[in-house]
Write a structure and sequence with these properties.
Blueprint lengths: L1 H35 L5 E2 L9 E5 L2 E5 L5 E4 L2 E3 L5 E3 L54 E2 L13 H8 L14 H4 L7 E2 L7 E4 L11 E8 L4 E7 L10 E8 L4 E4 L1
Antiparallel strand pairs: 1-4, 2-3, 3-4, 5-6, 7-12, 8-13, 9-10, 9-13, 10-11, 11-12
Length: about 260
């Protein structure tokens, strides 16, 4: 009798161990499957945000579908005509291929590319334009706060918000965060320069600090070049509480708030 009881207990113990092993295997396979859904050089973490259509988010190229799904990739380049092209189309599709995205949750995506924003009249491109060429006829000058957020006066964010006082730019945080916080406040963003837009540079892009940088678009030229005014940029007579001018270019880490 005692031997039969011991045998039953041993069999039950083995069954429990087998079920535990099966559950662990299923859990491991589930984790592996989840990780395989993230394409190489793609990102879907909560540090990025959703926006309808194509957009840049902290240097990532993203597409957001109408149902709230979105994909982002760091693998992209800009074509000679200024159009951004995804180098990872299976994750972030290009143009007409959007409706055939590999994501089942994104099957209803449109074929349009709504991010392109007209820059209005394109000014003649200055001769010899370059990233560290001083714009002829534009001179730096000092400013006072004029009562506009005086405790923030002197920094690039203060100046950019001062130029767009009808927008809640001072609520967007540090300069680099403006690119992804703007849509949360009802502001449109994109990758094409437009006169009057706010330009956002991610950290260390075209002279930006580790906190990023922002400025105001004054003129738009051909082939991605544009002229900005900015504050707290230590070049061409600029600096803290001083406004200066500079030629900059579209590209990775550069986005706009319209």
């Amino acid at each position: 009798m005692l031997g039969s009881l011991m045998t039953s207990v041993a069999r039950a113990s083995r069954s429990v161990r087998m079920w535990r092993g099966a559950l662990l295997l299923v859990g491991a396979l589930g984790l592996a499957g989840a990780s395989m859904q993230i394409a190489p050089a793609a990102h879907a973490s909560t540090s990025l945000h959703y926006q309808r259509g194509y957009y840049l988010d902290n240097g990532w190229y993203c597409y957001g579908w109408a149902n709230g799904a979105y994909h982002c990739t760091a693998r992209w380049h800009r074509a000679s005509n200024g159009q951004i092209v995804s180098d990872n189309p299976a994750w972030v599709p290009n143009g007409a291929s959007v409706s055939t995205s590999s994501s089942s949750s994104a099957s209803s995506a449109p074929a349009s590319h709504p991010v392109s924003v007209s820059s209005g009249a394109v000014s003649p491109t200055p001769a010899g334009i370059g990233p560290w060429v001083k714009p002829a006829g534009y001179y730096s000058y000092a400013m006072s706060s004029h009562g506009w957020y005086p405790s923030y006066f002197g920094w690039c964010t203060w100046y950019a918000s001062y130029r767009k006082q009808n927008e809640p730019l001072m609520q967007l945080g540090n300069a680099a965060a403006w690119a992804w916080n703007a849509p949360r406040h009802g502001l449109r963003t994109g990758t094409q320069p437009a006169v009057g837009a706010t330009v956002v540079f991610q950290p260390h892009v075209q002279g930006a600090s580790s906190a990023g940088h922002v400025g105001h678009v004054e003129k738009v030229y051909a082939n991605g070049w544009f002229l900005i005014s900015e504050m707290a940029f230590y070049w061409n007579g600029g600096g803290f509480a001083r406004v200066s001018f500079r030629y900059v270019h579209t590209g990775s880490g550069v986005s706009f708030i319209y």
